[in-house]
Amino acid sequence: MSTKKPGFSTLFYLMAGCFLALSCTVALVYFGVWLYYQFILQMPSGMHWQPLLTNALRIGIASGPVIGLGVWIHMRMEYSKGDKR
Fold first, then answer.
1. CA dist 65 to 22, 24, 29, 57, 68, Å?
2. Is 2 domain-assigned?
3. Which long-range contacts (C-beta less than 8 Å, at least 24 apart) are formed by 72-79?
4. N or C: fewer beta carbons within 10 Å in the chain?
5. Membrane-spanning residues where (predicted)?
């Protein structure tokens, strides 16, 4: 099994994957909180789905690519460490 240095296509996939994962996770958490208020507490939460979805996308756009870049840099550093042995 050969290992090759992580390239820029890997960086793109990591950034896109982290963006999608983070956005979906935040949206699901907001949806869970909304369901909790609506059905468990049976009181209006004052939340609407459009601002919550927009906020989830903002968090994903702001943090997802940065996390992907960090993972990619870590992968390249680990690869470089393996070359020196």
1. 10, 14, 20, 12, 5
2. no
3. 72/6, 72/10, 72/11, 72/14, 72/15, 75/6, 75/10, 76/5, 76/6, 79/3, 79/5, 79/6
4. N
5. 12-37, 57-75
pTM here is 0.67
User: Which residues neighbour 53 within 8 Å (Cβ) at sequence distance 6 or greater?
Assistant: 27, 30
**How many domains are there within the chain?**
1
DSSP-based three-state secondary structure for 13: helix
Residue ranges in the chain modelled with pLDDT below 70: 1-3, 44-47, 83-85
Which position has the token pair 């756009």?
A: 61
> What is the rounded distance in angstroms from the CA atom of residue 20 to the CA atom of residue 65?
10
